[in-house]
Amino acid sequence: MAWDFSTEPEFQEKLDWVADFCKNEIEPLDLVFPYAVRLKRNPKVRALVEPLQQQVKDQGLWAVFLDKELGGPGFGQLKLALLNEILGRYASAPAIFGCQAPDTGNMEMLAAYGTEEQKERWLKPLMNQEIWSAYSMTEPQGGSDPNLFKTHAVRDGDEWVINGEKWFTSAGRAADIIFVMCTNGMFIVPRDTPGVEIQPYPSTHNWIKYNDVRVPLDHLLGPEDGAKVLAQRRLGGGRIHHAMRTIAQCKLAFDMMCERALSRESHGKVIAEHQMVQQAIAESYAEINMLRLLVLWTAWTIDNSSTQEARTQIAATKFTMAKVLREVSFRALHIFGSLGTTNLTPLQSMYASAPTMGIADGVDEVHKVTVARNVLKEYRPHDGIFPTEFLPAKRAAAREKFAPLFAEDPELEQIADAMAQYTSSRG
Ligand SMILES: Cc1cc2nc3c(=O)[nH]c(=O)nc-3n(C[C@H](O)[C@H](O)[C@H](O)COP(=O)(O)OP(=O)(O)OC[C@H]3O[C@@H](n4cnc5c(N)ncnc54)[C@H](O)[C@@H]3O)c2cc1C
Question: How far apart are CA 256 and CA 258, in angstroms?
Answer without folding.
Answer: 6
